[in-house]
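Design review, sub-item: ligand-bound model
Attendees: FS, YL, KQ
YL presented the inputs for the S-adenosylmethionine complex:
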Amino acid sequence: MQLRQALNAAVERLTIEHVPSPRLNAELLIMFTLDCDRAYLYAHPERGLAADEMRRYDEAIRRRATGVPAQYITGHQEFWGLDLIVSPAVLIPRPETEHVVETVLELARLGEGPESQKRRTGVSAPRIVDVGTGSGAIAIALAKELPAAEIHATDISPAALEVARANAARHELSSRIKFHEADLFGGLPQGWFDFVVSNPPYVGESEEEHVQLEVRKFEPRNAVFAGPTGLEVIERLIPQAREALRPGGWLVLEISGTIAEGVELRLSGWSDVRITDDLQGIARVARARK
Ligand SMILES: C[S@@+](CC[C@H](N)C(=O)[O-])C[C@H]1O[C@@H](n2cnc3c(N)ncnc32)[C@H](O)[C@@H]1O
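KQ shared the predicted structure:
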């Protein structure tokens, strides 16, 4: 079968199964099967597919048609311009989470100016902990952007940490990030960090039916759901973050519109509390200073 025919048949199948963006998915999975880029697809529509290529493409399309996210089929997702390995042990990093990275960078780079150096020396080498690191997305992006930072990353899931370590190694950052298997902060030092950053589980079980079926069925439950209201992990994390931070240190959290009010309430007693929206206008990042 020719590439163009295989692609069109896959688009049709994914359309029938109500997979969103069927052409995009069909193209992504044929690029994965043939290990080529999109330009190659357009340049060689008449290329014949070998039996083995056809079998692998069929299998990828069959899995996608059952709802398996394309990223779990290809094993990859881009985050902050970096290619990350993903497996069903980790949440697929989302573009919204890049706002968390942006916020930390904005605050850390403010810290490099002469004004704040007067307030605290050594802030150009910030100490950062990423709580609930999953694939390592946030910790790895920050390690790339802040070459002098000391970075720790925790997760309660050993399988997720394995993926995070593999990602750090792929990007030659193994020596820059210390990974810890821990419930939130575990035994990390108190009063030490300049930044606590986290994209914790924050979806409430009461909202479950509004969550995309693919997320519910295929992404790790303990990465998505926090408990009945969605605030259960965050309400433990906020007081522990206060212990972990040095005075003047920042907490930067990914949140959702549903829990924004509850988060703000739990941040009373902190200074410089601010919640910012994502590109869809949904409350997405909460920051607060100890
Ligand atoms: C929403 S995912 C975020 C993953 C990654 N940071 C990202 O932004 O793509 C939440 C992560 O927190 C971890 N987690 C859940 N409860 C935890 C806890 N009590 N302590 C540490 N990690 C936890 C999950 O295993 C999961 O990897």
